[in-house]
Amino acid sequence: MNLDQLLTAFDMKLEGAEIRTEKVGDGLFVLFGVGGNIAVSVGDQGVLVVDDMFPELAPQVREAIRKVGGGDVDFAINTHWHFDHAQGNLAFGPEGTWIVAQENSSKFMGESHDLNLVVATYRQEAYPENARPVISFDDSMRFHFNGERIDLLHAGPAHTTGDTAVFFRGHDAVHMGDVFNNTGYPFIDADNGGEIDGMIAFCKAILAEMGPNTVLIPGHGELADRAALQRYVGMLETVRDRVADLIAQGKTLDEVERGQADRRSRPHLRSRIGVARLRESGLHEPPEEG
Ligand SMILES: [Zn+2]
Question: Ligand 1 center to residue 267 CA distance, Å?
Answer without folding.
Answer: 20
